[in-house]
Specification:
The chain has 489 residues and is an alpha/beta fold. It is 25% helix and 14% strand. α3 packs across α4, α6 crosses α7 and α9 crosses α13.
């Protein structure tokens, strides 16, 4: 029998691990996977063991690509698939277990710095772009040749941005071209000033200019009928871009354009709703969504300190990829906060939908930090490193005696006045003396224990010493879907 939080048992036995056979024609493998560049990367480092990381949708090509690279370089190739978290992050833990000296990442990538120093090469793929159609679409969306516009694209179309800019520069005088923020090679020294890095991209801004002055033209997607919510990279750009600037997208195949302003407003409204849910929450579940991105331990400590300062209880949960059945095991949690890379936080939710909202770190920061700017002035940050100390966006918590903690707040969801966070008075001298009591008393109970005590069924009771000892008997044989003694029924 199927239910909301489970799937039929036959699905686990009939599910295929991946698409069988090649997904890319043999004649296009060298171009799509940039095998010549990968061969040069392996030979320059003189690596004998290399890890090849493929997302699930490209595993059909993994065997042929690995065989060609082994034949050309003479190095041992290891295929990494089915990562514990998002496939956009570099799986440095899997590469370390294989003893790899370098890693090649194929497909979309969040470009987050890995937790371990490892030479990494990124291959986004090269999707074909109709330059003439995209240029006409750009001119239709930006009739003013003096308006500042920045060219953006999905990773697979980044190779065509300079060619598109070449067609547009004779008419447009203030055109900025972004590029993927690829990590610099290990040990390299760059004397030139680093350009602005945001949203996993580099923006070569002129001195005195800022990104908030530019409109955006995004090349990517699958046409005007596609759903932007299914593209976490586009959602990251829409949330972080200046609300007063226009943002349009263009399909690289057909040149069809769409104004993304309305969808960006819906995304921001959804995030403001999640902030209100976080402010109403008493118990917060902190989901560990990455172990391979740098500073994830520091970010987890920051989350625990943030919830404690706001008077909320928090629990750290390491569950791999969050799914509705997994999170349904914790009904006492009011909201969950996913600590993951920017694309992992904005990844589309499964069709079953979560029974509690899943937030990003930025939304919890806005809900628990009274010094955080109001919604109209605060930027939406998708990478947790931007909220940690050392970042220009970091806003420290006010001291306990600050008046910001005493400002009354009314919930926009329930309409009730939120209680102020309980804090220990600063003038409390504390007492180390022990007061004898006649019997033990429960001083404080965790929210999870209180929730469990209110349930009618609290789990299996061990009844130690009350069950008679019996001999071992043979149990059922087979799998749960069809035991041997159940017959064909």
């Amino acid at each position: 029998m199927e239910s909301t939080f489970s799937s039929p048992a036959e699905a686990a036995l009939q599910r295929e691990a991946g698409a069988a056979g090649l997904l890319t024609p043999l004649a296009d493998l060298d171009r799509v996977y940039e095998l010549q560049r990968v061969v040069g990367f392996v030979r320059d480092l003189a690596c004998q063991r290399v890890a090849l990381q493929f997302p699930d949708q490209l595993l059909g090509d993994a065997g042929v690509v690995a065989a060609r690279l082994e034949e050309t370089t003479g190095s041992k190739m290891f295929i990494l698939g089915d990562t514990a978290y998002g496939s956009c992050c570099v799986d440095v833990l899997g590469a370390e277990q294989a003893g790899a000296q370098a890693l090649v990442h194929f497909g979309p990538a969040c470009l987050s710095p890995p937790a371990l120093p490892l030479p990494v090469a990124f291959v986004f793929g090269q999707r074909s772009v109709a330059l003439e159609l995209c240029a006409k679409a750009f001119e239709a969306q930006n009739p003013d040749p003096t308006a500042p516009v920045v060219l953006l694209s999905e990773p697979a179309c980044a190779h065509a941005l300079e060619a598109l800019a070449t067609l547009l520069r004779p008419r447009y005088v203030d055109l900025l071209v972004s590029s993927p923020a690829l990590p610099l090679p290990v040990g390299s020294l760059n004397s030139e000033p680093e350009p602005l890095q945001r949203f996993g991209r580099r923006f070569p801004l002129a001195p005195g200019r800022c990104l908030e002055e530019y409109d955006a033209f995004y090349v990517g997607g699958s046409g005007a009928s596609s759903d932007p919510d299914l593209d976490p990279d586009l959602s990251r750009l829409l949330l972080g871009w200046a609300p007063e600037r226009s943002f349009s997208s263009c399909c690289p195949d057909t040149g069809g354009t769409r104004d993304e302003g309305a969808w960006a407003g819906r995304l921001r409204a959804r995030r403001r709703y999640l902030v209100e849910r976080a402010r109403d929450a008493r118990v917060v579940g902190l989901l560990v969504g990455t172990l391979g991105v740098a500073r994830h331990r520091e970010a987890l400590a920051h989350l625990r300190n943030l919830t404690q300062a706001a008077g909320k209880h928090s629990y750290v949960l390491a569950l791999g990829r969050p799914t509705p059945p997994k999170l349904a095991n914790f009904p006492e949690v009011d909201v969950f906060v996913l600590l993951a890379c920017p694309l992992g936080v904005l990844a589309p939710q499964p069709s079953g939908s979560f029974f509690r909202p899943v937030l990003s770190l930025c939304e919890l920061e806005a809900a628990c930090n009274p010094a955080w700017p109001p919604p109209g002035l605060a930027p939406h940050l998708t990478h947790y490193a931007d909220l940690l100390p050392g970042s220009p966006f970091h806003v420290p918590l006010p001291p306990p005696e600050s008046e910001l903690w005493d400002i009354p707040d009314v919930s926009l969801i329930t309409g009730e006045l939120r209680p102020l966070p309980a804090r220990k008075p600063s003038n409390d001298p504390g007492c180390s003396a022990l007061t004898p009591r006649s019997q033990l008393e429960l001083v404080e109970s965790s929210p999870a224990a209180s929730f469990l005590s209110s349930r009618s069924w609290q789990g299996l009771q061990p009844h130690l010493g009350q069950t008679p000892v019996t001999g071992v008997v043979s149990g059922r044989r087979g799998i749960a879907i069809a035991y041997e003694d159940e017959g064909s029924s």
